[in-house]
Amino acid sequence: MITKTQNSSLWNAFRGGDRDSFQRIYQLYVKELLSYGHKITSDVQLIEDSIHDLFIELWQSRTNLSETDSIKFYLFRSLRNKISHRHRRDVLYRASDVAHFIESLDEFSFEKQLIEHEGQEQLLRQLKKSFQLLSPRQQQALDLRFAQHFSNEEIAQIMGINYQSACKFIYSGLKVLREAVRIFCWGLAYLTITC
């Protein structure tokens, strides 16, 4: 991960026409862009074409681009807009990389506590099942927040919604997942007591 200062320097060098900086930006973010693209659509060809077009347009318009201290944020927002425009409508598809999201749940303290217990596999299955029941926008908001580490303000901009809606998607998604964990823990405690 690069610092904000390094981010700005790299971006400004690219804007000045430095091909090595452009290549470095591509190398740093292409895998994350591919992963993020899968949260928006399952159409692999559309994702790859959109990323390709994004980088071509970046290079062609580099002198007109404004400064940024978060290249990742700029690229994520641009990719989302590009995919949405290619669809000609704002439709989000169900995330296909649920396993990646489940791995990112280690930030929740309830998971850290439960992983130490023998019900780990059952919990992960329950979380995965509960995650799949979330709306596509809840899934995307949670992925952006906990797997990609964007702020709520950045999530709102990337998803093209207002700040309150972004917070609502995150809060409501977490509420569903927490309830699934609570029910699981209650069931596990019940089984432990009755066995």
Automatic annotation (TrEMBL):
Record flagged with keyword Transcription: yes
Gene3D superfamilies from the UniProt entry: 1.10.1740.10, Winged helix-like DNA-binding domain superfamily/Winged helix DNA-binding domain
Entry keyword set: Sigma factor, Transcription, Transcription regulation
Top-rank taxon: Bacteria
GO BP terms in the entry: DNA-templated transcription initiation
Domain RNA polymerase sigma-70 region per the UniProt entry, residue ranges: 26-89
PANTHER family linked: RNA POLYMERASE ECF-TYPE SIGMA FACTO (PTHR43133), RNA POLYMERASE SIGMA-70 FACTOR ECF SUBFAMILY (PTHR43133:SF46)
Protein name: RNA polymerase sigma factor (Sigma-70 family)
Biological source species: Rhabdobacter roseus
